[in-house]
Amino acid sequence: MDDRGTFTLSTYFKQKRLQKKLTQTEVANRTGLTAAYISLLENGKKKNPSPAVIKKLAKVLSISNIEVMKLLEFIADSSNDEKETEEPVQNLHFFDITGLSEKDIQHIQETIELLKIRAEYEKNKNG
């Protein structure tokens, strides 16, 4: 993935899917994405999936956290090359959740959402 000249996101995702012996429809069903979106991604017509999409695909395709970070870096670099005007993702943090149950992970996500709501409330109250 370090050689930007030969690496393509479309080929990478397709290879990962084929290694897992999954169809595009199976990946779509397991991620909550559409088979059409998976097809666009694998055919290079959708070049910069969001971090949320990468996370969904990583879970289904058994992509390690380190690989996910490399993918996000690759996407960020290619976005800069294309001079897109999208706002960069800020305050994005990665945590190792190995060993946690789905219930624990859900609790963490809910806690973060509550903290974000509280921060927004405090911001509006004080500003």
Task: Describe the 3D structure.
The chain is mainly α and 127 residues long. Helix content is 63%, strand content 0%. It contains six helices and no strands. The radius of gyration is 17 Å and the shape is globular. The model has no long low-confidence stretch (mean pLDDT 81).
Task: Summarize, please.
This protein has six helices and no strands.
Record the SSE blueprint.
Layout: H1 9-19, H2 24-31, H3 35-42, H4 51-61, H5 65-81, H6 102-126
Strand content: under 5%
Radius of gyration: 17 Å
Major sheet characteristics:
none
Spatial gap, N to C terminus: 45 Å
Q: Helix-strand pattern, N to C?
A: HHHHHH
Q: Helix content range of the residues, please?
A: 55-70%
Judged by helices, strands and strand pairing, the structural class is: mainly alpha
Overall form: globular
Supply the number of helical segments. 6
Tally of extended strands? 0
Q: pLDDT below 50 for ≥5 consecutive residues: which ranges?
A: none
> Mean pLDDT score, rounded?
81
Overview features:
127 residues; mainly alpha
